[in-house]
Amino acid sequence: MLAFDLDGVLIPDCDNISTIGDVAEYYELAAANMRPLFQPGAASVIITARYKQHAASTMAWANRYLAPLPRRIYHDRAIETAAGYKAKVLNDDHTISVYVESDLEIVEQLVHTVRSSCKILHFSQWVATQLADEERRQTYMARVKTVTKLGDKLAKINESFTVHQYDNGYMFEASGRNKQGDYVTAKIMCSTMDEIALLLREAGDMDLDD
To answer: Which of 94, 127, 144 is the C-terminal boundary of a domain?
Structure first.
């Protein structure tokens, strides 16, 4: 069975909406106004790292916009980290064979902590497999504001960077300065070595962070 993250996959993450106040406000606004980017279907599961005190807003959104409802919605995170909570759910629910996550750092942690029978995908990888038409793929990626190139996050780059290899793809990791001068790290999931090569070329053309 296929399982999806909620914020960042089915709806945009609040981190990408600068006018939003706290997360409680965002969840309430989403429940009243935000349609999903796609319908996950009845034969699916949603796993969200929202804390359990926000369960009412989560279910209000699901009941309003998801038709049909997924088979299960996990929304009872207590004090665990987001990755820890999701790893527990995925290790306990053996009906889930693929999980699509929005956060690259959580993907990296789940790859090492979740049972091998469950495939962990960053949602950009899942989109690439589902939307073969490039125009549809680019439209979707624009809507969710995915970082797909180094310039989306970095203005200057360090002299070294790392390529991580996983069973289901690669991750290009580089640090440097953003346009505001803050030190940040970009982590970009790639499905093929051709995508890695494009990032290497982009890195070579960027100004170095001295």
So the answer is: 144
> Sheet of 207-208: strands edge to edge?
183-190, 169-177, 156-166, 207-208
Q: Which two tokens stand for residue 50?
A: 């929202």
CA distance 117 to 189: 21
Residue-number span of the structural domain to which 204 is assigned: 150-208
Q: What angle do CA 28, 32, 35 make, to 5 degrees?
A: 115
- The reply to whether 117 and 35 lie within a common domain is yes
pTM for the full predicted model: 0.64
Shared domain check, 108 and 193: no
- Residues 160-188 pLDDT 10s: 888 887 766 778 889 999 888 888 888 88
In which residue ranges of the chain is pLDDT below 70? 14-21, 128-147, 167-168
Three-state secondary structure call for residue 117 = coil
Rg (CA), the chain: 18
Q: In what order do the strands lie in the sheet with 119-122?
A: 72-74, 44-47, 2-4, 98-101, 119-122
